[in-house]
């Protein structure tokens, strides 16, 4: 991997998308806004305070729509808001991330990351501060039905959440000290995960061309490249990019160039070697087989854990029943002794 050049830009990778420019500006601002670079440096439209998020907006994504003007945003206030940029006075739709599905904002999970796959236009996922991934269905009839399920496995905020470009049923999460690969079919555990690192992981993404390759960046300034077909316990390549924390990473669409941004706003652009950005022979089939095998293994373990929990619950209930019977027997014996003593006392 060859380092090419550096750019001094703010937080998210060197204006990778227009929405990323908005995101950088809104990082600690509850308002949502958009810019048209043909119309100068000022925002064209901006949301009003009373109808905006209550906490900083951490993620904004463009939606695939007929008009091309729809976006949605996520914030640590526990809300996901949909907007039409032609009229941003108020959101077109609102979802409160309350896991109890009661729509209570006080119980809502703070949103840190979003995932939207254009081939699944009704589905989206939210990574939360509490380490849960919330799977949602936008077209559900009621707010309660929009929250489909949750995936639990991390110990802190999920900074990165992305579906595999070639296998969208499998997705990557980056949080705490690990990166994890999940299957939509398994709710209780990820199917693969990295070892626990000494430094926190702060971002990650899949290679757009190789389904077995993903990238992570850490607080110690290190970039790790993983190829799960080559090895799974350690990264294929680790590169010390800088001395400060790396907060963001993005890969070019053809997988050839990669950019990481640091805590101080310095973006490093690197060229990836041909072996890591060229689809290998039978790679898709091998990755598909690996994901299916690991999913099947986790399903078996999940069924076994469920069975053990049921047995434990049955034992607990049986134990409580036995204790109740013993208590009733002791009470009956005590009552008999008292009656016997009273009878003897009267005879004397």
Structure description:
InterPro entries: Dynein_IC, WD40/YVTN_repeat-like_dom_sf, WD40_repeat_dom_sf, WD40_rpt. Keywords: Cell projection, Cilium, Cytoplasm, Cytoskeleton, Dynein, Microtubule, Motor protein, Repeat, WD repeat. Belongs to the dynein intermediate chain family. This is Dynein, axonemal, intermediate chain 2b. It is found in: Cytoplasm, Cytoskeleton, Cilium axoneme. The chain is α+β, with helices and mostly antiparallel strands and 348 residues long. It has one domain: Methylamine Dehydrogenase, Chain H (7 Propeller), CATH 2.130.10. Helix content is 22%, strand content 33%. Strands 1-22-21-20 form a four-stranded antiparallel beta sheet, with no helix packed on it. A hairpin with a 3-residue loop joins strand 5 and strand 6. The longest helix is centred in the C-terminal third of the chain and has 65 residues. The N and C termini lie far apart (104 Å). The N terminus is likely disordered.
Features:
348 residues, alpha+beta, Methylamine Dehydrogenase, Chain H, four-stranded antiparallel sheet, 3 helices, disordered N terminus
């Amino acid at each position: 991997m060859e380092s090419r050049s550096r750019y001094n830009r703010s937080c998210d990778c060197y204006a990778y998308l227009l929405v990323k420019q908005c995101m950088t500006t809104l990082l600690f601002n509850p308002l949502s806004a958009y810019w048209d670079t043909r119309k100068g440096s000022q925002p064209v439209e901006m949301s009003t305070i009373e109808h905006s998020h209550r906490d900083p907006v951490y993620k904004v994504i463009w939606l695939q729509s007929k008009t091309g003007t729809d976006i949605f945003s996520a914030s640590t206030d526990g809300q996901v808001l949909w907007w039409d940029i032609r009229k941003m006075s108020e959101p077109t739709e609102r979802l409160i991330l309350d896991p109890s599905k009661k729509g209570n904002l006080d119980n809502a999970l703070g949103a840190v990351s979003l995932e939207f796959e254009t081939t699944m236009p009704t589905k989206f996922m939210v990574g939360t501060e509490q380490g849960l991934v919330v799977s949602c269905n936008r077209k559900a009839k009621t707010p309660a039905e929009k929250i489909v399920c949750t995936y639990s496995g991390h110990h802190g905020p999920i900074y990165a959440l992305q579906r595999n470009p070639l296998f969208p049923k499998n997705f990557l999460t980056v949080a705490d000290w690990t990166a994890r690969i999940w299957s939509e079919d398994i709710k209780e555990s990820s199917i693969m995960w990295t070892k626990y690192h000494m430094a926190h992981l702060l971002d990650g993404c899949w290679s757009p061309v190789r389904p077995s390759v993903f990238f992570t960046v850490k607080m110690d300034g290190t970039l790790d490249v993983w190829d799960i077909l080559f090895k799974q316990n350690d990264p294929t390549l680790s590169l010390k990019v800088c001395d400060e924390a790396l907060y963001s990473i993005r890969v070019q669409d053809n997988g050839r160039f990669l950019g990481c941004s640091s805590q101080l706003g310095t973006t490093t652009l690197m060229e990836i070697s041909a072996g890591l950005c060229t689809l290998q022979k039978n790679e898709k089939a091998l990755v598909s087989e690996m994901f299916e095998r690991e999913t099947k293994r986790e399903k078996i373990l999940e069924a076994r854990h469920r069975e053990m929990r049921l047995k434990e619950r049955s034992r607990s209930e049986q134990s409580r029943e036995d204790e109740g019977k013993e208590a009733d027997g002791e009470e009956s014996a005590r009552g008999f002794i008292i009656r016997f003593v009273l009878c003897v006392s009267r005879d004397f």
